[in-house]
UniProtKB/TrEMBL annotation:
SMART domains: AraC_E_bind, HTH_ARAC. The keyword Transcription regulation applies. The keyword Transcription regulation applies. Coiled coil: none annotated. Keywords: DNA-binding, Transcription, Transcription regulation. This is AraC family transcriptional regulator. SUPFAM superfamilies: Homeodomain-like, Probable bacterial effector-binding domain.
Length: 332
């Protein structure tokens, strides 16, 4: 029996270490996207057989190796389209695509927009992010910060003493274009709703001068099971700003009730894509790693709360979820 337990322990240790080898190849890929990348050398870098490397990569990154490489090349190409005057053909070749036509076809399939129109209209896009696999395995305690080379975040239990009221607008978000977090591609519908909100904000009454703003993902139809929704369906997204509590029939309202919340706090640059990347990684860590490993379940909504900041370059963001109590789980 002891030998059996020792074997299980060794297998677990091996599994925990293997992600580091996959991360090495992720870092290598990021630095060599302009070059030809093949499975065999990547597998050798990870000290794995090509067969096992591809299976493990897809399991951890949620995409096949070559598909991930293609999507990261597209992400870099997006930055070139916005930040340079290079010809689209040159951008395509620079980022590992064989021709303008090949690049345009792959770009439109991923984002539902052509490279030319993207450069002209500059919409925010959901892109496949470079993952930091350590965030899938490192479990921090409440109040202890998680520090990586990309971000700094902290999770704690906090009590909201007084209910907060927000006024704003409501929109529908495609599940397929937004989930899984950091891995879906397409037009960033949330960003479009935020732009609409800031356009309408001067006409919304009763807003606090220095109030927080929030984005809330939820299902307005409470009869729907969030676990059973397909990629062709949608969820609701509220965008608004803190008000003095005065009702307004002309605008959507969201109330954060007094009570206990799990809050993930982090700071990021206000510029894109750094801001969207940080939000996606924090959401993914909280909802897909931290809470499952703590065996916690929350109410079927999450709140992105943007706090006022004196620093023009830094965004202070909090993600709020309301944990379900044990008796609520036993008596739904």
């Amino acid at each position: 029996m002891r030998q059996f337990h020792d074997m299980l322990y060794l297998l677990e240790e091996e599994r925990m270490e293997t992600w580091k080898e996959i991360q090495k190849t992720i870092d290598y890929i990021e630095e060599h996207l302009d070059q030809a990348l093949r499975i065999q050398p990547l597998a050798e870098l990870a000290h794995l057989s090509p067969f096992y490397y591809q299976r493990l990569f897809a399991r951890l990154v949620k995409r096949p190796v070559m598909d991930y490489i293609k999507m990261r090349r597209l992400a870099h190409a997006c930055q070139d389209l916005l930040n340079s005057n290079e010809r689209i053909l040159d951008i395509a070749l620079k980022n590992g695509f064989s021709s303008h036509a090949h690049f345009a076809r792959v770009f439109k399939a991923a984002f539902a927009i052509t490279p030319e129109l993207y450069r002209k209209e500059r919409p925010a896009l959901n892109q496949v992010l470079k993952p930091n696999l350590s965030m899938q395995y490192v479990l921090i305690d409440e109040g202890v910060p998680l520090i990586t080379n990309e971000m700094f975040l902290e999770i704690s239990y906090d009590t909201l003493v007084k209910e907060e009221t927000y006024l704003g607008i409501l929109g529908k978000m495609s599940i397929g274009a937004n989930i899984p977090i950091g891995a879906a591609t397409g037009i960033n519908q949330a960003d479009q709703l935020w732009q609409s909100f800031y356009t309408l904000k001067p006409s919304i009454p009763h807003l606090l001068d220095k109030g927080s703003t929030i984005g809330v993902s939820f299902l307005k139809d409470s009869s729907l099971d969030p676990e059973k929704l397909g990629s062709d369906q949608s969820f609701d997204y509220f965008v608004g700003m803190q008000s003095d509590g005065t009702p307004s029939e002309a605008w959507e309202e969201w109330r954060i009730p007094a009570g206990e919340y799990i809050i993930c706090r982090f700071e990021t640059e206000k510029s894109e894509p750094e801001r969207s990347t940080a939000i996606a990684k924090a959401l993914s860590y909280l909802l897909s790693t931290w809470m499952p490993k703590k065996m916690l379940i929350s109410e079927p909504y999450s709140i992105e709360k943007y706090q006022p900041s004196a620093d023009a370059d830094v965004e202070k963001i909090e993600i709020w979820v309301a944990p379900l109590q044990k008796n609520e789980l036993e008596n739904p």
